[in-house]
Amino acid sequence: MATSYVEYRELTKRFGSTQILHGINLQIEESEFVVLVGPSGCGKSTLLRMTAGLETINSGEISIADRVVNRVRAKDRGIAMVFQSYALYPHMTVADNLSFGLKMNKTPLERITKSIASAASILKLSQLLKRLPAQLSGGQRQRVAMGRALVREPEVFLFDEPLSNLDAKLRVGMRAEIKALHQRLKTTTIYVTHDQIEAMTMADRVVVMNDGRIEQVGAPLEIYDRPENLFVADFLGSPAMNLLSGKVVHNDGRMDFELENGIQLPLPDNSALRSDQQIIYGIRPEHVAFTDDDNGLPVNLTLVEPAGWETHLHADLSGISLRLLSVERVGARPGDSARLAVDTSKLHLFDPTTGRRI
Amino acid sequence: MPSLTKTSNNSTTARERIADLALATVPYLMVIPGLIFVVGVLGYAVFGGFVLSVHATDMFLNKTFVGLQNYISVFNDPRFQASLLRTIVFVVLSITLGIVMSMVFALTLYHVGFARRFFRGMSLVPYFVSGIAAAVMFRFVFTTSGGFVNYVLQQIGLPTAAWLGDPYLAFMVAVLANCWFMVPFATLILLGGLQTVDRDIYDAATIDGASGIQMFFQITIPMIKPMLGVSLIWVSYISFSTFDIIFALTAGGPQRATEVVSMYMYRIAFLQLDFGQGAVLMVVLLSFNTVMSLFYLYYFVLADRRLEKEASP
Description:
The structure holds two protein chains of two kinds. In chain A, 23% of the residues lie in helices and 35% in strands.
């Protein structure tokens, strides 16, 4: 048996003259929790809907459990999907919502009863079975939507931004519930979100998409620590990575990075760099710190945002804006001057023309 | 903090209270003139009708109180009984045909992608044509010699019919003409209903394995039930009260085959000038329409399960 459970081969999709997906290739392993993440319009939801059988395929192949499903109907693909809007049947009780699919597939009544009872107990819905969706809270509706997916006993779970309609606190709770459910059921899961925190916290592997293409695939921290290109570097991480334009300069046999305003920042030894080469110098806000060293970068603080567990700061480096993140409490105020040090072991360097990592 | 709350409470001046009161009452004040106008006109007519229905009138409109005599005379008139039965058949056929047609058109328009606005606009055109004009058009189409339908039948070698001369056929043509007039608006109401259904719900039902037919009866119909109720109210009201179409199409003929209650009422009130008995017929039509509308309201709009809110936990 092949290890890839869901596989996309050269998958393309067009809506009219607009190309939505440009030849997607991806292999998802059995039991894996894969998160498709990217900005609006990057094609992640379309990819999910094509997997579900709700959108046609222009070219390429989708296979689920070693079976090409391009021409298989949605109900026969062995998938279940949870929608952003929950898509509950508003005129049916929770129990009827859960059993609708089973009834359509002519499942025997006793099995329906058993499936509903089991799903309801897993998702703590047992007390709500006679309610209508309008009588439920957002979190409860979300659980009914998951229950409806659960009773289908699918081979693959598809989630389309399921937490977007919940408030921040509930979202964190449901995130953990979905993750726990996956750990319990071990069902292969494809989860679409535009929220990078969801992607980072839930995924076994993250697939970063942009403009109908896959930018990078990897474990969450792997992608965070080593973004392959400028898009991924900029997209993942909040506050976002500082990306500074400038060129490489030689100083007494040592290499430095010179910003457009003439200020120089340290560079580690890197044989791939040559003098005067234009590069993008990327440093995450948490890798810029205050220093007492007089050689530190002189900045003026422009904005201090205390978030409780951490503090976000904006600093002005002679006309260039820098973002910093400190887990310490910061007593500084806007207008204060300070000196900063950059952790050169955590730098990300990119080629400005190709956008690729150097 | 408590002192702050207290201060702000105390600081509500008389002027602020008047402003609040004005804000709350102005919307009602704005509604009142319209309300008085509607209730006045409608109330006067309905009340006047009721009063008239228990009086006998002469040609100078002198009224003599006769109690329920007008009702007894009307209900015992075989011509009324026949016209009432005819009306009920007419209404049932019109509702059935009209709602089915409206639903088919609404679903079609819902799925039309190309030139959507054009087709939706065009679908309303029949509604803009007055009932009389529609009836005249139908006469042209269904006239025995030289009518469009017979011409087509002749061309393809089928037997022609005396559409407006045969009692049964004339009745059917009247039903058709009535549908032609009322379907566009009902279509529009149903289309509005269809557009409120979240497309994700159909996607969910597709994944759940529902067929097109199952989706229609188990998802679409229950979800547009309130709109279905409103269009039923419209369709049955128009069918019960239809007058202009039948008047211009067949004038109640042939052999009274299309003499519905409204035609009969016209005859009694305006040809025989018996306003008392005419008023009785008005009461009959009003009662039917009211009962039907309440029925639809109750079963389709108020009984919509989605409106049920939080019960006890």
